């Protein structure tokens, strides 16, 4: 980077803002990935932070630059969680928007796994004389995690699978009689945040017959503009039509499937980037045994009443 650049702590702070902005829209952007961008002045002042809010809407870089129109000459650097695009898709290339600004430097969190984009944006910008750097370490890992569901769908033809399981202190997934859940308020908040960032919910007929869960996002703001899919594995046609009607009433789009591969292919075809498996012990075990999971979140009640649940998140393989 040139001597005249925002200082490294300012870049790290801007990355935090860009990552948080992108995360706030995860679950709303499919089939596009969530992306965040911050624009900085040369002294590190943050001029604007924006996220991509959905397919067909402006990309993060274009939106962030647009928000700087009244400080146009102060624009010096961009921090963006995903490599800027260099192609005409539903929107014009971000590389052109950056080149039309006074920006001199671009820090990038992750390469774009889209073959139509990969490498093109970074190369175009550096060929035009801008300083372009890919960050490393935790910021790169967080950026890669944001785009991992998009990459999973593009390369494997299935959504990223987050498998959530809640256990009682004695290792059971079944709530005590008369209770629908046994998790703490904080764990329920987490469960709804996991739903919010997913494009689809996956469950089994057994779970629906046992306690007809709503599987909607309720405890956190949900910016999604289209119905979230609810894919149900139901080999024997046991799910009552009244449940499906109630799910539709709640803004979900339910579908019935006979096997897991067909279910996953159908979700990916429909544009789903990430799916949350919220199922009972048998179906959860089937996903785990088949290696069909990318992130495993376990919430375990501890024996001492009042103590916080233990939450563990395991990634199946590193994202960078
Ligand atoms: C960016 N910034 O904020 C996003 C990017 O059809 P389009 O024009 O929306 O292009 C979609 C592709 O652009 C998408 O597949 C992905 O490769 C990239 N997404 N790129 O520079 C953004 N959302
Ligand atoms: Zn773009």
TrEMBL record:
Which residues are catalytic?
A: 61
Listed Pfam families: dCMP_cyt_deam_1, RibD_C
Taxonomically, which superkingdom?
A: Bacteria
For the ligand (Zn(2+)), the binding residues are 59, 85, 94
| Key words of the record | Metal-binding, Multifunctional enzyme, NADP, Oxidoreductase, Riboflavin biosynthesis, Zinc
What the entry lists under InterPro entries is as follows: APOBEC/CMP_deaminase_Zn-bd, CMP_dCMP_dom, Cytidine_deaminase-like, DHFR-like_dom_sf, Eubact_RibD, RibDG_C, Riboflavin_Biosynth_HTPR
Q: What is this protein called?
A: Riboflavin biosynthesis protein RibD
Q: Lineage, please? A: Bacteria, Pseudomonadati, Pseudomonadota, Alphaproteobacteria, Caulobacterales
